[in-house]
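Researcher: Structure prediction, please.
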Amino acid sequence: MTTEAHRQDIDSTGSNGTRVLGIAALIAMAALALFGLVLSPADANQGEVVRILYVHVPSATVAYIGCFLTTIGSAVYLWRRSRWWELVAYASAEIATVFTSIVLVTGMIWGRPTWGVYWVWDARLTSTAMLLLLLLGYLAVRRLPADHEVRTRRAAIVGLLLVPNVIIVRQSVQWWRTLHQKPTLLANGVGAKIEGLMLFSLFVGFIAIGLVFAWLLIHRFRLAWLEDQLDEAGLDVAIAERRAEGAAS
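Model: Predicted structure follows.
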């Protein structure tokens, strides 16, 4: 689909589809609050603090997805100069930044009663903090006062670094000694065991946080596209005014 066709398709950030998605996200978040705070039992070892898990783990997952989308979008932009993919990368980076921040905050809240401190220079925490800094760097580079093409190209180069960092974050508990617990869901017999209503509550968390992520991503992409249209319209007006001034002189 051409750029012109995309511009005709998007004239606002809302649609019937996003309204349905938003309602589904609200219902899922209400279900998460019910199961996570009321119905699921306390953990035998962690007690009530285990409830943070139902937000912390899904938030980390969607943050990784956002980083993957940013890296893919950046790669396609550098290869094909696709404005659409560049905006996908930009929108994904902003949403990934929000959820990475949620991961760090919920992790610190969990760490205080579990480790006795809010922060330790643990491999998982440190690599996640580096991921957040890299996301902020991507967003900062994209907003530098420079030519649009230069900014987006430099930001795309930074975006390529996100997936390698995500891999480091994800594997940090296997590669180094760390206070952070093993993966919550068992994989090849490795991880923290979770079952029953606690496992169901975690899956509700994945659905709820995933729907919120999708809703935010769609709206942020559409807003970015409208901003891009506005910038181009302003440029067209400026060029027309300059030509008119030249003709008059």
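Model: The first helix runs from residue 3 to 9.
Researcher: Thanks, that helps.
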